[in-house]
UniProtKB/TrEMBL annotation:
The keyword Signal applies. Keywords: Signal. Residues 1-22 form the signal peptide. It comes from Streptomyces formicae. It comes from the Bacteria. This is Ig-like domain repeat protein.
Length: 662
């Protein structure tokens, strides 16, 4: 351990270093729930309604992730390089996956998530898309310039593969497919080029029959969906900025769903409800329509979970209905490549607009009026709305108030007399019906409460290091709540604010708690309030000294001059003062020297700061004066701020007296 040296021959410059630092430490709807997916990409989304499972293929990750209806992962199926298209068997026992990296279609049991079969495709390469129709599994396959359609018939004892089922149509690579399993309608369109030709097949017979092949609006088809009755086909592509609808008889235009942005996905529920998905950074991403009705029923806009200015966007082909139409599942991604499964509940029901307005402030126990309005096409006058009041005495779920009915224009109002003060929230809820989704809205009013008297003692007091100090809070009159919390927050960023006591005050209104005063400490008393008296918080700052002890060495004897103890040194001996002080990171001791003058007074020759070692010690050697007859005194101190921190109060050690002789 190195010993520092101070010379007494000349006055020392006073080095003040104050370096104490304290560380301070209703437009479009959103998805009803969302869960992150551990995938690198999203190729296709499939819903198994029988087992309430969602399958998401990940071509880049070479796997399929299986979740439940809440998005919780139930299984991960690995070893499927470049897996993309998915299809569910009619009995919901098998999920089929087009695995381009293996040039196969793989079958997975839905009850165990284990691979049950792997089907070779008679030389067909890169199967990417799947569709079920007329009891066969149809697949789009082919590398660049060799695209085609094949079928896999699993109805017999042995699987039967048939390639080149695309008739006179020509596909650059594996085409996008859409189908109606029951009517035998299969529709194909180019997925990787701008070719805008759609081809409709009737696959109900022994061989596919081309029904229509025609240039339509689009190209680079991201998704194709056929209506459950097999009469209409809807496409999603980067252009046009809507989802066009065509007749499957001759591909004549039937109408369009004005989704308003780059088409990314489309799926049709069993009842014909259409979910049209767009890749929209700054607008709604999912648009819901009734079949053949061109006005939107509902829209959903994804939030921004990344770092770009726009919101998350829908993955290509990233929409899938639950078979009962109760949910729509959507896969989105952000600019950081994170994918999310979003669950949209009751998407086929329109979302009414409900507003509630309460006064900003109101006196307690006085009547107030709350107003609002329910807006939505087809909602009749006299619709009943549920009303709930939430306050400090009736926390969640709150107190049910009498229901209120809407007027002809959808407006409503009701009166209430809040019995409790503080924040009072009025929630109004509409239960919904067969065509309208449930919704609710609320507004809060600040209801006045009486002021609370709360005091805390010991403010400004200074205590020795480690003293156990009792702080007492006094609570005045309140209504029901008589509980007080006492917190202690020591100075310094490394110690947290800590609750040291929480209890009811005694009959005098007092609550005491003991603090171990090793640092300056802000003590806080907190009353949370009740129905009639406001919350209150008061603080008291108390201060703690440090421990300081010093020993002198190198002297040849001790003795008294008057009543003062002196350490005797020969004039050429260097005294050593070894100080031990309460340690804190970066802390320094102030070493001070004074000399006794002819005027019989002590005169300062200066002071200097020396850092403490990790064990709190700081030895300093005082240079020998080289002459006798000199009396001096030295001491070590902690100076708040100047000693490198401010977590304790200034503390001076005892003077040590020195006498230099021959």
């Amino acid at each position: 351990m190195r010993t520092r040296t101070v010379s007494t021959a000349t006055a020392l410059a006073v080095l003040f270093s104050s370096a104490a630092l304290v560380a301070v430490t209703s437009g479009p709807a959103a998805a009803d729930s969302a869960k992150l997916l551990n995938v690198k990409s999203a190729g296709d989304v499939l819903v198994d309604g029988e087992h309430q499972r969602v399958y998401v293929s990940d071509p880049r990750g070479g796997k399929i992730v299986v979740t439940d209806y809440t998005g919780a992962v139930k299984a991960t199926l690995d070893g499927l390089p470049d897996v993309e298209g998915l299809a569910l068997s009619p009995d919901s026992r098998q999920v089929y996956a087009a695995v381009s990296g293996l040039n196969r279609i793989v079958s997975v049991e839905t009850s165990t998530y284990t691979q049950s079969a792997s089907y070779a495709l008679d030389g067909a390469e890169k199967p990417r898309t799947l569709a079920l129709a007329s009891g066969k599994l149809w697949f789009g396959y082919g590398p660049d310039a060799e695209g085609g359609i094949g079928s896999l018939d699993l109805s017999g004892d042995q699987p039967v593969v048939a390639l080149g089922q695309d008739g006179d149509a020509s596909f650059y690579a594996a085409p996008e497919l859409g189908s109606d399993p029951d009517s035998g309608v299969l529709v194909a369109g180019e997925k990787v080029t701008s070719n805008d030709t759609l081809t409709v097949y009737d696959v109900s017979g022994e061989k596919p029959r081309t029904v229509a092949s025609k240039s339509v609006e689009g190209g680079f088809f991201d998704d194709i969906a056929v209506s459950p009755d097999g009469t209409q086909v809807v496409t999603a592509s980067g252009a046009p900025y809507y989802h066009p609808v065509y007749s499957t008889k001759d591909l004549s235009p039937v109408g369009r769903y004005d989704s308003g942005d780059y088409g990314a996905a489309v799926d049709i529920a069993p009842d014909g409800t259409v979910a049209a998905g767009t890749s929209s950074w700054y607008g709604p991403d999912v648009h819901i329509y009734k079949q053949g009705q061109w006005s939107k029923v509902r829209e959903y806009e994804f939030p921004n979970t990344g770092h770009s200015s726009g919101g998350d966007t829908l993955a290509e082909g990233g929409l899938a209905w639950a078979p009962d139409g109760s949910r729509l599942f959507a896969v989105s991604s952000n600019d950081a490549g994170a994918f999310t499964l979003r669950v949209l509940n009751d998407p086929a029901k329109s979302l009414p607009k409900l507003t509630v307005t309460a006064p900003e402030k109101a006196p307690r126990a006085k009547e107030l009026t709350v107003k609002g309005k329910l807006s939505g096409s087809g909602i009749p006058a006299g619709t009943s709305l549920m009303v709930t009041r939430t306050d400090v005495e009736s926390p969640s779920p709150g107190k049910a108030l009498p229901s209120v009915k809407t007027k002809a224009d959808g407006s409503f109002s009701f009166k209430d007399t809040p019995p409790a003060g503080g924040k009072v929230t009025y929630k109004v809820a509409y239960a919904g019906d067969a065509t309208h989704a449930a919704t609710s809205a609320s507004d809060a009013v600040e209801v006045s409460r009486s002021a609370t008297k709360l005091t805390l003692d010991k403010n400004g007091k200074v205590y020795s290091y480690g003293a156990d100090v009792s702080f007492t809070a006094h609570l005045g009159t309140t209504y029901k709540n008589r509980t007080v919390e006492i917190w202690a927050d020591p100075y310094g960023g490394d110690k947290p604010n800590k609750l040291i006591k929480k209890a009811k005050v005694n009959s005098r209104g007092d609550l005491s708690a003991t603090v171990d005063m090793k640092r300056d400490t802000v003590v806080t008393a907190v009353f949370s309030g009740d129905a009639r008296y406001a919350s209150k918080k008061v603080t008291s700052t108390a201060y703690a000294k440090v421990k300081i002890s010093s020993t002198v060495s190198k002297h040849y004897k001790t003795g008294k001059i008057g009543s003062t103890k002196y350490y005797y040194f020969h004039k050429n001996t260097d005294p050593v003062l070894s100080t031990k002080m309460t340690y804190y990171k970066g802390r320094k001791q102030r070493f001070e020297v004074q000399v006794y003058g002819p005027d019989r007074k002590w005169h300062s020759t200066g002071s200097e700061y020396f850092a403490l070692y990790a064990d709190g010690t700081s030895p300093v050697r005082l240079g020998a004066p080289g002459e006798s007859g000199i009396r001096a005194r030295i001491r070590s101190s902690y100076v708040n701020g100047s000693s490198g921190d401010n977590v304790n109060s200034t503390t001076h050690g005892a003077w040590k007296y020195l006498n230099f002789t021959r």
